[in-house]
């Protein structure tokens, strides 16, 4: 899970909130936000994340994700956060293929427990997990119940994601490349490509953990 630093909310969204009666009454409603502003919001957040899923870090495109409410908008006590920019991320699996396992936002669903979930917005989130060369993910601390629960709820260690991470790892294990070549390879992989409105490479924190230190 890569740390996501939230930027500024698009001014168009702020302007709309300032004129919407429901928002002014402290009762924001996601379904009242005009479609064009929802599209703007999705695009801005996707760019902010470098086109990777907020949870598993797979690459996602404009038509391959859903907007994730960390605090679920369908739960009464969290409805006030429906249009909170700091509660919105982009998660993979807009549509599930037949037989495809749920993970990330689709697996999390309406589950959320305050202080029992590690969010990509937590500054220490990258330090809470470790990876192995077979693509597995574990809590960095065996006693970290919250990290274990987060992996479970997001299904981050299912075969599908484990195999995808393993495929990303394998090129770095090539015995034919020198240490210097490996170092350059890793540096290139971990470049912050958002500076050019580009994408992060998949499974960024996996490669960073295994080869970037």
Concise synopsis of the structure shown:
This protein is mainly alpha-helical and 213 residues long. It has 8 helices and 4 strands, in the order αααββαββαααα.
How would you characterize the overall build of this protein?
This protein is mostly helical. It has one domain (11-211). It has eight helices and four strands, in the order αααββαββαααα. It has helices spanning 11-19, 21-24, 35-48, 104-108, 145-154, 159-169, 179-189, 204-211, and strands at residues 65-69, 88-92, 129-131, 137-139. Strands 1-2 form a two-stranded antiparallel sheet. It is globular and about 65 Å long.
Describe the secondary-structure layout.
Elements: H1 11-19, H2 21-24, H3 35-48, E1 65-69, E2 88-92, H4 104-108, E3 129-131, E4 137-139, H5 145-154, H6 159-169, H7 179-189, H8 204-211
Antiparallel strand pairs: 1-2, 3-4
């Amino acid at each position: 899970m890569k740390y996501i630093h939230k930027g500024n909310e698009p001014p168009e969204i702020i302007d709309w909130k300032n004129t919407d009666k429901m928002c002014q009454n402290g009762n924001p409603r996601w379904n009242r936000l005009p479609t064009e502003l929802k599209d703007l919001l999705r695009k801005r957040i996707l760019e902010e994340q470098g086109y990777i899923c907020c949870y598993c870090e797979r690459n996602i495109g404009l038509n391959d994700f859903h907007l994730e409410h960390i605090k679920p908008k369908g739960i009464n006590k969290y409805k006030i956060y429906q249009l909170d920019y700091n509660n919105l991320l982009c998660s993979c699996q807009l549509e599930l293929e037949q037989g495809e396992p749920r993970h990330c936002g689709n697996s999390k669903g309406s589950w959320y427990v305050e202080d029992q979930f590690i969010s990509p917005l937590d500054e220490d989130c990258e330090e809470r997990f470790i990876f192995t060369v077979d693509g597995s993910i574990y809590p960095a601390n065996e006693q970290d119940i919250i990290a274990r629960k987060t992996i479970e709820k997001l299904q981050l260690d299912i075969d599908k994601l484990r195999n995808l991470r393993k495929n990303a790892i394998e090129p770095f294990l090539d015995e034919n490349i020198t240490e210097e070549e490996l170092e350059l390879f890793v540096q290139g992989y971990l470049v912050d490509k958002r500076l050019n409105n580009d994408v992060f490479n998949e499974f960024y924190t996996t490669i960073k953990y295994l080869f970037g230190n």
